Amino acid sequence: MATSLRARLLLGAALWIGLALLAAWFAIAALLRDTVERAFDARLDAVMLSLLASVEVDDAGTLALGRAMADPAFGRVRSGWYWQIADAGGVRLRSRSLWTADLPAAAPPPGGGTARTVLAGPDGQPLRALARMVSVPGAAAPVTVTVGGPLAVVEREVAGVSMTLAIALGVLGTGLTAAVLLQTMIGLAPFGRLGRQLAEIRRGRRERLDDDTFAEVAPLVREVNALVRHNSAVIERARTHAANLAHALKTPLSALAVTAEQRHDPEVAEAAAQMARMIRHHLRRARAAASHALLGTRTELAPVVADLRTVLEKVHAERAVAIAATLERGAAFAGERQDLEEMLGNLMDNACKWARARVAVTASVAAGRLAVTVSDDGPGLAPADIERALARGGRLDGGAPGDGFGLAIALDLARLYGGDLTLGRSDLGGLAARLDLPAAPE
Amino acid sequence: MRVLLLEDDLRLATALADTLRRAGFAVDHAADGEDGAAMGESEPYDAAVLDLGLPGRDGIAVLTGWRRAGRAMPVLILTARDAWADKVEGFRAGADDYLTKPFRLEEVVLRLRALVRRAAGHGGSVVRCGAIALDTQLGVFTLDGAPLILTAFEWRILAYLVHHAGRVVSRTELSEHVYEDHVERDHNSLEVMVGRLRRKVGRARIETVRGQGYRLSAGGDGDLP
């Protein structure tokens, strides 16, 4: 399974962001709860202080409040906000909200400190309460003042703030993840570019990677470029070796063929001819296999046709064949010159062999394709012969000089470049060979 | 017809020289680029057979040197390299025809005869002078349509004369084109050979131009008046 570097980076970042956000959530939630509780306790404290300030023993010797409590919540029955003042004999004073009920007795520290505790309210709901033992002047025994409020209020408030916190952290998390995503995309972009350039190298549209890249990627680019150079050097070497071997073999092979001819030994002569054909075939394959690596080059058509024309008019001088070329201006082949020469050379040579007097080469460019037609005024080919002519090594021109590979070679090379060779009847009356090849842009 | 054969492979050179001699050529052989280049520049060859892969000096350089020195004889290139780029290079250097290895001896003979004939300005494959005709494809002389039986040396002399028919060919020129390099050139024996040829083709056809040389002419029925 292919693993993604981007997914890996994203996953790592997401994990850390998640952990950090979770820790933040816990810390901030605890802090918030603490703040809410403090505010709640401050409210209870205020009530406690106000109670302590106003409790007194009246003329009848009973406990009473000097003034009414300001906080209205304690006045509403069963509001959840309660206070009571009790001594050993029972509850002496209670908030209106308690009506006739009592809060459970708390156990405040006897030294005068305040106890914080959770009590069960009259309806059973939990109350957060403060209790304090004080001595009231004129009273026989110290009294216990208890103030409580509904714990649910604390919880509700904490829950509300927590929700806001969660949303805020969620938004933060999403934002961070998006930022990481963007960063990995920007950060990994050079690799995407490298990939595209490498693909272009393989297709032969470029020779090396651009080296104006980031410092972190530069060593990779250098190494890949070195590898590409090394690769083409190895191919070139292999190609040269193959060519040298083939050419070195041909001279002794010629001696063999010539000796066979002198001694009238057709078997040896045929074996030598077969060896020559095989050498030529494999040499051509070796060259063709390597030439793919150098696609993307541009070869002007006109000089190639002019060169071949000079050669062929001399070679076929005996038969005075005139070669006319009508080429679209700037027509160029997207490939190696040697391959174009091989294709056109074979087609034009073949045309000259069969022509009565005239051979015409025409070329035009349309929609990125180069169409080259070589026609002659010779006898032409029957449809059945056309198929045989294009088959590898088919020998149709047994009578004419040459090895009969010409058309097959041209077809092979054309296909290598994603093109084709078709044979038909020409306007001149003979064979028309049409090459369809990739055109090089101007 | 005298040709220069520049080929370093001894077996190939021997076979080529034998075949060319049998086909009526006088053959000088060199196995080294430097020697061959010098021979081609100093001797009046009717044609040259040049292997491109030579030791000493490669074939293309030899050919370029000849052309630069003004040597215009037709050159047939023998090469192991059969890419069109190599052929183009050869023709640019001044070649007139090429054969890729391995080739047939017969093919070399045919190509050479055609080159020599065209270089002498004859278009068709049969070179004629009156009743005498040389079929350069078959290498056969006919007189009024009947085959002429000639020795190899007679053939050589008549072939040179028929290619240059109507023009006076000096004895020196004739000897330069029918004797090989290593053979002692002897005007007297040449005279004897021409005399024998006259008996075969008709006295009047080969004139002796006093002090100048021989001339093959189309006129006359072959007998002196």
Notable traits:
heterodimer, A: 442 residues, alpha+beta, Beta-Lactamase, Heat Shock Protein 90, 3 domains, five-stranded antiparallel β-sheet, five-stranded mixed β-sheet, rod-shaped, B: 225 residues, alpha/beta, Rossmann fold, Arc Repressor Mutant, subunit A, 2 domains, 8 helices, globular
Structure description:
The complex is a heterodimer of chains A (442) and B (225). With 442 residues, chain A is an alpha+beta fold. Chain A folds into three domains: 6-156, 2-Layer Sandwich (Beta-Lactamase); 220-293; 295-438, Histidine kinase-like ATPase, C-terminal domain (Heat Shock Protein 90), CATH 3.30.565. Chain A is 51% helix and 19% strand. Chain A contains eight helices and 14 strands. In chain A, strands 4-3-7-6-5 form a five-stranded antiparallel sheet. A five-stranded mixed sheet of chain A has the order 9-11-12-14-13. Chain A has a two-stranded antiparallel sheet with strand order 1-2. In chain A, a hairpin with an 8-residue loop joins strand 6 and strand 7 (143-150). In chain A, helix 3 runs antiparallel to helix 4 (266-291) and helix 6 (337-354) runs antiparallel to helix 8. The longest helix of chain A has 53 residues, at 151-203. The radius of gyration of chain A is 51 Å and the shape is rod-shaped. The two termini of chain A are 44 Å apart. In chain A, 27% of the residues are buried. Chain B is α/β, with parallel strands linked by helices and 225 residues long. Chain B has two domains: 2-119, Response regulator (Rossmann fold), CATH 3.40.50.2300; 126-216, Winged helix-like DNA-binding domain superfamily/Winged helix DNA-binding domain (Arc Repressor Mutant, subunit A). Chain B has eight helices and twelve strands. In chain B, strand 1, helix 1 (10-22) and strand 2 form a beta-alpha-beta unit. Chain B is globular. The model of chain B has no long low-confidence stretch (mean pLDDT 88). Chain A binds chain B through residues 243, 246-248, 250-259, 261-262, 272-273, 276, 280, 307-308, 310-311, 314-315, 317-318, 337-338, 341-342, 344-346, 401, and chain B through 9, 11-12, 15-16, 18-19, 53, 78, 80-85, 87-88, 91-92, 95-98, 100-107, 114, 118, 125.
